[in-house]
UniProtKB/TrEMBL annotation:
Name the UniProt record assigns to this protein: Adenine phosphoribosyltransferase
SUPFAM superfamilies xref list: PRTase-like (SSF53271)
EC number(s) per entry: 2.4.2.7
Subunit structure, as described in the record: Homodimer.
HAMAP family according to UniProt: Aden_phosphoribosyltr
Domain Phosphoribosyltransferase: 31-156
Cellular component terms per the entry's GO annotation: cytoplasm
The keyword Glycosyltransferase is annotated on this UniProt entry: yes
The organism's taxonomic lineage, starting at the top: Bacteria, Pseudomonadati, Pseudomonadota, Betaproteobacteria, Burkholderiales
Species of provenance: Rhodoferax sediminis
Subcellular localization(s) per the UniProt record: Cytoplasm
């Protein structure tokens, strides 16, 4: 995986001082723009979740970049995909979960018929920062009786504490690379 990790890391753009001074924004757009790079990215996830012990019934993607990854991974695995959206974006009956941000709060929603009790769900996003969005997604899926087998993302930003917080809650995590101390 090391060569894959190095290859993917080389295609992540760092944008200094965005959205605020001192922030090093990790932009995954270059991973998506090049079809060969995008295939390596998706294949890294698909290989993991094709293993019998890691098989899932559904992939859930967090709004919005988790939709890109999750839908393609679900397609490749031959399972369904469900979007976890920001509040007010889903047209049917929903359950919702509010979580804290650095300055305020946000709410995500999921259709009440998105998963069935006992479904094994892979929860995907592009990166893990504070972990709030992924934790809210996990809680939503559990409200409907599903079991989140693992949270997955391209990038972990461990200095922001999200991955440690998610693991402490009992959620297994898989990330392709991290930007610790960088």
């Amino acid at each position: 995986m090391s060569s894959t990790t190095d290859f993917l890391r080389a295609h992540i753009r760092t944008v200094p001082d965005w959205p605020a001074p001192g922030v090093q924004f990790r932009d995954i757009t270059p991973l998506l723009q090049d079809p060969a790079v995008f295939r390596v990215l998706i294949d890294a996830f698909v290989q993991r979740y094709r293993e019998a012990a890691m098989r899932v019934d559904v992939v859930a993607g967090l709004d919005a970049r988790g939709f890109i990854l999750g839908s393609v991974v679900a397609y490749q695995l031959g399972v369904g995909f469900v979007p976890i959206r920001k509040k007010g974006k889903l047209p049917f009956t929903t359950v919702e979960e509010t979580y804290e941000l650095e300055y305020g709060s946000a709410t995500v929603e999921l259709h009440t018929d998105a998963v069935k009790g006992g479904d094994r769900v892979l929860l995907m996003d592009d990166l893990i920062a504070t972990g709030g969005t992924m934790m809210a997604g996990k809680k939503l899926l559990e409200k409907l009786g599903a079991h989140v087998t693992e949270g997955a993302a391209i990038v972990d930003l461990p200095e922001l504490g999200g991955s440690a917080r998610l693991r402490a809650s009992g959620m297994p995590l898989f990330t392709l690379l991290d930007f610790a101390g960088q």
